[in-house]
Design a protein that fits this description.
Number of strands: 5
Strand order of the largest sheet: 1-2-5-3-4
Shape: elongated
Strand content: 15-25%
Structural class: alpha+beta
Radius of gyration: 19 Å
Oligomer: single chain
Length: about 130
Amino acid sequence: MKVVQETGKRKRAVARATLKPGTGLVRINSVPIERYQPEIAQMKLKEVFLIIKDPKLKDVDINVRVYGGGVIGRADAARMAITRIINKYLGKKRVTKAIREYDKSMLSGDKRRIEPKKWGGPKARARVQKSYR
């Protein structure tokens, strides 16, 4: 079996996942998935393995490198990378169908990005208020 690589993006976060033969370990930035913090991000990452129950996953290691963005953006990017790499490795239509039924953004992503700031105000839409008194 050869090494498989895949990426995932969410907002400003980018995740690169690598799948290779091993003992079933999943690591995010060299931290085992069981010790990844905060707990809500850990739960998002474990969703993938609750949906896809396949005995072949016990024979491979998945390493994910995530950078940029915030905590939840990183978790979503890592989740997408893990889902894509497992889907690519297993290559079964029932796996793809199960993922799409649960949450289609786990494979295709979410195109929403931050709206750019415009002139005349402190943020993208907020404007300086004016008093007429």
